[in-house]
Design brief:
By secondary structure, this protein is an alpha+beta fold. The chain folds into 2 domains: about 5-95 and about 110-165, Butyryl-CoA Dehydrogenase, subunit A, domain 3; about 175-295, Nuclear Transport Factor 2, Chain: A. Helix content is about 50%, strand content about 15%. It has 12 helices and 7 strands. The chain has helices spanning about 5-25, 30-45, 55-75, 100, 110-115, 120-135, 135-145, 150-165, 175-190, 190-200, 225-235, 285-290; strands at about 90, 200-210, 220, 240-250, 250-255, 265-270, 275-280. The chain has a 7-stranded mixed sheet with strand order 1-4-5-6-7-2-3. The termini are far apart.
Length: about 300
């Protein structure tokens, strides 16, 4: 085996972990793949003869690439809108695909990714690397160009923001599924009172329509407002879309499509305390096409 083949094998061994890091950093599956491609190029061009821990070295490289990508977003003023929904990881309702297990370790739901989008790039990197992957602050410091103490402060600041905002879903997935199914049934039946009963009073609905006409992307707060929106959508869609239960980032959700198979949306449900606290809807046609949802057709 020559050196190139050896490097390729080592990179593939670490790829699931590296993609998990990039996904949490970027909230985009496509950009995570781009970050891994750039990291592979850097590996291929580097002399790693003195590298004792290749996994740690690659994690650092991926983190630097992701940090640059996040900062580039900032410089182009590509700040995520309130209605931005990160790329969901969609799995069959029967269970998470083994290839996605590393990607979704530590229950990285859409609700958590939405909050990570609000962090400054350096805060996000420090929090993701330390709190999610256990990287020491001494190794994080040179990536962000600060001292270990400053890196610790970045992660602490991010941690306070995440814990104060990101909802913690119920541990019982079966119960979460029941709540999601009750919501869908009530919406289809046009039962406003049943919808309000299953929604937390402070529920947030986030709909990301991407390139769809103005008004398709919105954030709605409160049980009655969200229930009203759910009924309005059901009444505007005749016949009703075909809906298949799936797992969205390890939690309950749905894929909806037209009768001819065109995907309409991916819906992620976050349930806590027996009620829905957050609904995240991706309805951007361009991004839906990249998710390869054909396998979830009935």
């Amino acid at each position: 085996m020559d050196e190139s083949e050896w490097l390729t094998e080592r990179f593939q061994e670490h790829r699931p972990h590296l993609k998990a890091v990039a996904y949490r950093m970027l909230g985009s599956l496509a950009e995570a793949d781009e970050a891994l491609q750039e990291s592979w190029i850097r590996l291929d061009r580097s002399d790693i003869g003195g590298v004792e821990n290749l996994g740690g070295w690659l994690t650092t490289v991926v983190a630097r690439v992701c940090l640059n990508m996040l900062r580039s977003r900032k410089s182009r003023h590509e700040e995520p809108l309130d209605a931005h929904v990160p790329d969901p990881v969609v799995s069959a309702d029967e269970g998470i695909d083994p290839e996605d297990e590393a990607l979704l370790a530590d229950s990285v739901g859409l609700a958590m990714l939405v909050v990570l989008e609000t962090l400054a790039p350096a805060e996000r990197l420090a929090f993701v690397l330390h709190d999610m992957f256990g990287v020491p602050f001494e190794e994080i410091a040179p990536i962000v160009g600060r001292s270990a103490t400053a890196a610790r402060q970045l992660a602490s600041r991010a941690r306070r923001r995440v814990k104060g905002v990101a909802p913690v879903p119920d541990e019982d997935l079966a119960r979460q599924r029941e709540v999601a199914a009750a919501f869908l049934a009530a919406a289809r039946a046009g039962d406003f009172d049943a919808l309000v009963a299953i929604l937390d009073p402070d529920v947030v609905l986030r709909a990301d329509g991407g390139v769809l006409p103005a008004g398709a992307s919105r954030v709605i707060h409160g049980a009655e407002a969200v229930a009203g929106q759910a009924l309005a959508f059901s009444r505007s869609r005749q016949p009703l879309p075909l809906v298949r239960p799936v797992l969205v980032n390890g939690g309950p959700g749905f894929v909806s499509r037209t009768a001819d198979g065109r995907p309409l949306s991916v819906v992620g449900i976050t349930a806590a305390g027996g009620r829905i606290v957050e609904i995240d809807i991706l309805a951007d046609p361009q991004r839906l096409r990249r998710l390869h949802l054909e396998e979830f057709d009935e």
